[in-house]
Amino acid sequence: MEVFTTRPDTIFGVSFVTLAPEHELVAQLTTAAQKNAVEEYITFAKNRSERERMADVKKITGVFTGAYVIHPFTGKQIPIWIGDYVLAGYGTGAVMAVPGHDSRDYAFAKHFELPIIEVVAGGDLSKESYDAKEGKLINSDFLNGLEVKEAVKAAIKKIEEKGLGKGKTNFRLRDAIFGRQRYWGEPIPVYYKDGIPHVLNENELPLVLPEVDKYLPTETGEPPLARAKNWKYEGKYEYEYSTMPGWAGSSWYYLRYMDSNNGKTFASKEAVDYWQNVDLYIGGAEHATGHLLYVRFWTKFLNDLGLVPVIEPAKKLINQGMIQGTSAFVYPLNPYYLVIEVKLIMKM
Question: Looking at the chain, which residues constitute the CATH 3.90.740.10 domain(s)?
């Protein structure tokens, strides 16, 4: 059974494994005694959306499959449970549950009275899980005494040496918010043939915004681009009606500033080699999952193509906090002076 974890240092704190209800191995693993309970639970979980399952942290549900896995280091039997807080689309749909150091695993273990093992010193497990990524490893065999960051590397090395797994970096994009239901924006160069999306060839770019009678949705609720007359690929296939958001163009605009009059490319090689990346970029919190996220991915993509010499758009990137409230105090210091003290509470 494969699991993906960002905390391999806590491998000795695993006291159970949780599978997503949709996991392909559930049917094979479930024992005859637990079959009815598992099937009922799967039916229940199917009627809840992923949003509900992730947001409803107070409603703890799950069921034991009756099966066990063998811990790769200790050789102990670890019970396999099903819980809808695990999603099939994230990682492998299986979680090595470490209740001592993960809040959701902790709540699950408390609810079903499962063992909670402390492997990182620093918390009080009688009250809550200790999720901080700092502290020394305990009860962890060859990892004992190491700080968390050192232990992560040591655990990955040992896991790879024993052929149990391998280190890997997973990237996630919030691409659901990339398409915008409005007129102003770059058209997405996609058309649909028999319901299947196809991308335009490079020599067919750019796809130009069509004229519309007004910049409003259609009467049936489709985006404004659906108002365009005779706007079809090869005259018969519907284009994508969503447009790209503002951070599509802004993901490369800093490069355009380097050579804004260049009519052949976004910037010459001489310009990008000279200017390279921004020295200091300060952006607000509202940009963190929009422009500031995509500008990094686009820069890396252009670097992979050999078009820019850097992999990061800025040498230093700072996300601002938000002012949550103020409190002011005015008091006399002596007959001739007043002191005004203002405190700002920052959320980072």
Answer: 8-161
